Amino acid sequence: NLEELNEIRNASKLPVFIGSGLTIENAEMLIPNSDGAIVGFGLKNIPTWDSDVDIKKVKQIKQIFNKYRK
């Protein structure tokens, strides 16, 4: 969550990456407060390891990353 992300950012000078939990729904809130992310299930049609990647979600999250890229 955003509170934990900011707590980590304030406690470290190292880059802060989101390791899990990033979705299209929370990307606008989390991405500007991080240095990057590992995205997996958040881009799937169904959140299972064997489901297909949703290309629409990939394009949406790419737009959000590009918006906040420094």
List the helices and strands and how they pair.
Layout (H helix, E strand, L loop, with lengths): L1 H10 L5 E2 L5 H7 L5 E2 L17 H14 L2
Parallel strand pairs: 1-2
Task: State the main characteristics.
2 strands; 6% strand; two-stranded parallel sheet; 3 helices; 70 residues; mainly alpha
Measured distance between first and last alpha carbons: 22 Å
Q: Please work out how many helical segments DSSP would assign.
A: 3
Beta-sheet strand percentage? 5-15%
β-strand number: 2
Helix content: 40-55%
The chain-level mean pLDDT equals 91
Given helix and strand content, the structural type is: mainly alpha
Textual characterization of the structure:
Strand 1, helix 2 and strand 2 (36-37) form a beta-alpha-beta unit. With 70 residues, the protein is mainly α. 44% of the residues lie in helices and 6% in strands. It contains three helices and two strands, in the order H-E-H-E-H. The chain has a two-stranded parallel ribbon with strand order 1-2.
